[in-house]
Amino acid sequence: MQQITIDAASQHLHELIEAAINGEEIIITKDEQPVIKLTPVISEKKRSPLFGSAKGLITITDDFDEPLEEFQDYM
């Protein structure tokens, strides 16, 4: 995440727009307070997911593939 003042943003707007299009989060500040978040409306580049990016977010219990008690009558 990049934070930049309004004055600096006005001087480097083209570069900030390119950075936002490429996925960087740009926060523009006024009086040291964040006021604007620069994000693209439509992404020009479709980003592919990074392999392993969900590591640690999903867990599977040891009994995942065991038959469920509620379905014993159907087996």
From TrEMBL:
SUPFAM superfamilies xref list: YefM-like
DUF2281 domain location: 44-74
Pfam families referenced in this protein's UniProt entry, alphabetically: DUF2281 (PF10047), PhdYeFM_antitox (PF02604)
Highest taxon in the source lineage: Bacteria
Entry-linked InterPro entries: Antitoxin_Phd/YefM, DUF2281, phD-YefM_TA_antitoxins, YefM-like_sf
Family affiliation: Belongs to the phD/YefM antitoxin family.
Function of the molecule: Antitoxin component of a type II toxin-antitoxin (TA) system.
Protein name in UniProt: Antitoxin
